[in-house]
Design a protein that fits this description.
This protein has 9 helices and no strands. With 240 residues, the protein is mainly alpha-helical. The chain has one domain: Four Helix Bundle (Hemerythrin (Met), subunit A) (Up-down Bundle), CATH 1.20.120.1630.
Length: 240
């Protein structure tokens, strides 16, 4: 790509790049609807499997490496939530091209956060199902979000033109780079903006899924295997 650096600097000289017109994407609504159906039909069964296959507590695994793997899953999930909150604090949908904070390292930090949460929940399932779920989740994520990102890139390119294409040339699509790309004055993180973008949703969603996993290994599966519900509840409350 050959681009005049001065023209790019001029585009960002007055601060973050503002949207001046609406996006034009061929069959955008139809493609979005198809992806919504694919997400609903694909991801929800996988998330249900994360819960159903949480057969035992992490500390009940036979080997230390398996215990570490499951706690690593919790770390991934928490990192994913933090990534999404960080990203939402810079995001001004339909009005401004976000290039600051995590957007200077990856063009899709929100999806990176979603991916980390899903990988974490998969690893929190019991061995060996956690690795199977991790593989299934990643395959599904690759298919769905590759298509989703493609639609969004068409939209952003139609809105911001050449400066956006320069941004794409300097910032990776998904996996973050170590050094952030930055041109001109950029917006700052705003916690208020993050909550306006509904940053509480991934927090509540993760808490709910973690609670269901804990209930599965601490209450539901013990009741199915050997205890009555009341006995399983007593075991659960006592930490057994």
């Amino acid at each position: 790509m050959t681009t005049n650096p001065e023209s790019v600097a001029e585009a960002f000289a007055d601060g973050p790049l503002k949207a001046t017109h609406k996006a034009t994407v061929r069959d955008g609504k139809k493609r979005e609807k198809r992806l919504d159906r694919l997400r609903l039909q694909g991801f929800w069964p996988v998330y249900a499997a994360f819960i159903a296959l949480a057969l035992r507590p992490p500390l009940a695994e036979e080997h230390v490496a398996l215990v570490v793997m499951r706690f690593l899953g919790l770390g991934f999930a928490l990192l994913g939530v933090a990534m999404r909150i960080w990203s939402m604090g810079y995001l001004m949908k339909k009005t401004e091209l976000a290039t600051a904070g995590p957007y200077g390292r990856t063009r899709n930090p929100l999806y990176v956060g979603t991916w980390l949460i899903g990988c974490g929940l998969a690893l929190l399932a019991a061995w060996p199902f956690n690795l199977i779920l991790l593989a299934v989740y990643n395959a599904l994520f690759f298919v769905v979000y590759r298509l989703q990102i493609g639609i969004e890139e068409e939209m952003l390119s139609s809105i911001y033109g050449e400066p956006y294409r320069v941004y794409c040339a300097n910032v990776p699509r998904f996996f973050p780079q170590f050094k952030a790309w930055r041109v001109g004055d950029v917006s700052r993180f705003s916690l208020k903006r993050a909550f306006q973008n509904r940053a509480w949703e991934p927090v509540l969603g993760l808490l709910l899924l973690l609670a269901l996993q804990v209930a599965a290994w601490g209450l539901i599966w013990p009741a199915i295997k050997e205890y009555t519900i009341s006995e399983a509840w007593r075991q659960f409350i006592s930490g057994g």
